[in-house]
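Form 7-S
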Amino acid sequence: MQESRDLEFAALLATAHALADKAGGVILPHFRTAQKIDHKGGDLFDPVTAADRNAESAIREALATAYPSHGILGEEFGPKNSEADYCWVIDPIDGTRSFILGMPLWGTLIGLTRDGAPVLGMMDQPFTRERFWSGEKESFFRHDGATKTMRTRACTDLGEAMLVTTSTDFLTTADERSRFATLTGAVRLRRFGADCYNYCLLAMGHIDLVAEAGLQPFDIIPLIPIVERAGGVVSTWEGGDPRGGGRILAAGDPRLHAEAVKLLSG
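Output:
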């Protein structure tokens, strides 16, 4: 039975790698070129490009061949059979704002859930040739063909912690801004930007805390297994289930996570 599960996971992981390769081939010709940028709507500028749409289309087409019974939840084209036992969760370019500015702080997110639980996650950055993914028990990083295991670092003191967030623009209420300010006032260093990169650098042991607001499920589900299997914790600000997105807290050290939840939950 265990051998069967191992073979199944290996096949699913191989599919995720193939999907990342395919998406990267679609996206890279658009990067740092003149391109049409559309706004999805809303108060905050929410850009989307042909690279986003074409990459997700390529992933969906490949999945329709490889696993036609599986569901898909994607940022650009919504859900398809998302109540299936297995559901792929796709964000073709997480960090489109960085992408349109020519900054390589974006990545393709590919996740897989089984009965709603994240079982596999991958973040691919084809421009820098970096790839981060979760195995069954560990998380891995590959650059230029060299692969190594990732582990978060120990940090129990908020006063020593390094914290990052993509942007305070997503803190849309006075309550969120106040709670976030309380946390950032307690840490050693705070930095901004980088979207999905933040969670992968946390898994590598370079960052201690990531605190975000306004995330969608496809922004976080692929990253949960990467962080958790490197030794970290992902939750809502209140310590709840992060799979629905919203206000998200990730920590490399479970003890630091508990302290951060105390501050963020008020």
